[in-house]
Design brief:
With about 250 residues, the chain is mostly helical. About 65% of the residues lie in helices and about 0% in strands.
């Protein structure tokens, strides 16, 4: 727990561990990464002691490492940083690590993709509007939505949460963000998840569609007649999705 983590920090070992993240022996790197990874599961202050030692500077090479296991541990480490405070989220952004995490959403082993999904979703919870807008601007939505096809209910839930948060924090850009979700096939996936056996998943899928993709109560009066004609067919057949495409796509400008 956090008390043990504090004992490790108080011993002064963090300053010696962090440089080992770039050790030429893979076994040493792996052990150092696991050790600092365990420390950043603690409080934000405990996490900060690792960041203060310049840990994030080692991560571009860890995320590009030839060994998949190191990629996975590195993304896991970052998922604990993006779960921290906004200053810590900002440090991840400023070190240029977000595009690299996004890359891991769609390549390598599923376990690494799973850690990447957590890292992204945590950022949408901990980050502020500007930070989440940056995440969206880096092209996160297509590979993130793609994970909705997986069989792992936990990952599906984490991704739905993240999408929900991105839409929630989009403010005036909500139509553009919704259009991105739709254009990459994400909306079709969310629609079919309304039939998922897991209660949490189908509730969240339903809420996202109700809130952001149902034209019912659309502010734009010009769309209203169309909305009543098509807004309630979700999941009935493919025409509902096709019919919704034009209005949703129209808000990107």
């Amino acid at each position: 727990g956090n008390e043990q983590i504090q004992m490790v920090i108080d011993s002064g070992v963090v300053a010696k561990l962090v440089p080992l993240l770039s050790h030429r022996e893979v076994k040493v790197q792996t052990a150092a990464l696991r050790a600092v990874g365990n420390i950043v599961t603690g409080t934000d202050d405990q996490t900060q002691t690792v960041l203060n030692q310049g840990a994030l500077e080692h991560f571009p090479s860890l995320l590009n490492h030839a060994k998949e296991k190191i990629n996975k541990e590195a993304v896991w480490f970052l998922s604990n940083i993006t779960a921290g405070n906004q200053q810590q989220v900002q440090a991840v952004i400023e070190h240029g690590l977000v595009p690299m995490v996004i890359t891991h959403l769609s390549r390598g082993e599923f376990q690494t993709q799973k850690e990447a999904a957590w890292a992204i979703s945590n950022l949408t919870i901990s980050g502020n509007k500007t930070q989440v807008a940056y995440l969206v601007s880096q092209g996160v939505i297509p590979p993130f939505c793609n994970l909705l096809n997986c069989k792992d209910t936990q990952v599906i839930q984490v991704v739905l949460d993240g999408i929900n948060n991105m839409l929630k924090l989009a403010g005036p850009d909500v139509e553009a963000v919704a259009a991105m979700v739709e254009e990459c096939g994400g909306l079709d996936k969310i629609e079919s998840l309304q039939n998922h056996e897991n209660v949490e998943i189908y509730k969240l899928a339903y809420e996202i569609i109700e809130q952001y993709f149902s034209d019912d109560g659309e502010e734009d009066a010009a769309l209203a007649p169309q909305a009543t004609a098509e807004g309630f067919q979700f999941g009935a057949d493919s025409t509902a999705a096709d019919g919704a495409e034009a209005p949703a796509g129209g808000f990107q400008f």
